[in-house]
Amino acid sequence: MRFLRIEKFIPFWGEELTAETTPFEVGRTFKVKFDHPADFIGKAALLQQKQRGFTKRLVQFQLRDFNKDTDYWPSGGEAVYRNGEYVGFVTNSAYGFTLHKMICLGFVQHPDTINGKEATIDLQWLLDKSAKWAINIAGKMVSANVNQRTRKIHLRSLLQIPCNMSPHPPKIPSLGKDSKEKPPPTKKGHAPTVNLFEKDIE
């Protein structure tokens, strides 16, 4: 389920949802009822942020030219670059079983904001096709595509995923008194094998 929530672009409390993030920054404003007659804590600040714009945004990255079997997997904290400039960091990652790609979630900011001059970002800045995104994974710059939409995952696509796992538990050899298998021979210097199922000698 952890892998699926990252592929579906769902933020998680403690990783993307913290006391320092807002619903606007993680794309969860549909969870907030601004037209509710009763005020709630933080409503005025959110409305102010809506007018001012956002300086930080959670995005989903789909890594390109990444081999899940041989390359190092990102684990969180990796630096994110846009056109060669540092703009953010990865919060979490997982392999997308329906996309067949490595997926990362991370927060990005405008380079001016990182340098001390606050600047807002919008979808045009994020989805600019001429921009080149990359993530530094263990010293290797891996190119990535940016996604800002929650993806719908169909159950049928999950059922078609090849899997070598068996629904049955592994067979455990029996060593009881009715077992035809003999216990392994005792190695020199080791304690002798004790058969707990052998009848007591009267």
Using brief descriptors, characterize the structure shown:
extended; 23% strand; alpha+beta; six-stranded antiparallel barrel; Gyrase A, domain 2; 202 residues
Task: Give your account of this protein's structure.
This protein is of the alpha+beta class and 202 residues long. It has a single domain (2-157), classed as Gyrase A, domain 2 (2-Layer Sandwich), CATH 3.30.1360.120. It contains five helices and six strands; from the N terminus they run H-H-E-E-E-E-H-H-E-E-H. The protein has helices at residues 2-7, 43-52, 111-114, 123-126, 155-159; strands spanning 56-63, 79-82, 85-96, 101-109, 133-137, 140-147. The chain has a six-stranded antiparallel barrel. Strand 3 (85-96) and strand 4 (101-109) form a beta hairpin. It is extended and about 80 Å long. Residues 157-169 have low confidence and may be disordered.
